[in-house]
Amino acid sequence: MDPAEPYLDVGPVRCAWGPYRRGEPAEPAARAWLAGQLAVPEDALALWRDVHGRPHLGQAHAGLDANWSHSGERLLVALARGARVGADIEWLRPRPNAMTLARRFFTADEAAQLADLPHDGAEAWFVRLWCAKEAVLKAHGRGIAFGLERLEFTRDGEGWRLHRCDPALGAPADWRLHAFMPAPGYLATLAWRPH
């Protein structure tokens, strides 16, 4: 990813987004951007994945954390100082089965909140909720395999607020989330908590 791509600083997190070619591995582009941010050659950047597939930076960058996500034709890469970070980006396309997925994977209260919305708004709120959940779970390190139902959000104004979560995720108040539209037709969420 070109270091000149647009970026955003929020809290301890810097993120950038750019084009992504479907079917290609995202890691080389993420590595290029991270290396540029850390002022090291790409081939010198120590980047490894744990048994769950979560990326980690090497000891030379202790105290920093990285995460990335791709959807459609966009890639989002995040770098955090002093925090664990998760990033999710979703292409905003029709999701006619959103309520079926919500009833299957979200908590009963979340599914009920979505069901109470007008049909034309429910899909957008579904994507916002999915993005928030996935960003938190990616920061935690297990991704959605940990269980989307193990954290619960409530609608709060224009977004979702983490209300309850499995103790393995820490306290809900420890988490910070930032949702934004990095490009037309895309929604992204960053989630982080202090180390």
TrEMBL record:
It comes from the Bacteria. Keywords: Transferase. GO terms for biological process: lysine biosynthetic process via aminoadipic acid. Pfam families: ACPS (PF01648). Gene3D superfamilies: 4'-phosphopantetheinyl transferase domain. Residues 84-159 form the 4'-phosphopantetheinyl transferase domain. GO terms for cellular component: cytosol. One of its GO terms (molecular function) is magnesium ion binding. PANTHER family: L-AMINOADIPATE-SEMIALDEHYDE DEHYDROGENASE-PHOSPHOPANTETHEINYL TRANSFERASE, PHOSPHOPANTETHEINE TRANSFERASE. Belongs to the P-Pant transferase superfamily. Gsp/Sfp/HetI/AcpT family. This is 4'-phosphopantetheinyl transferase superfamily protein.
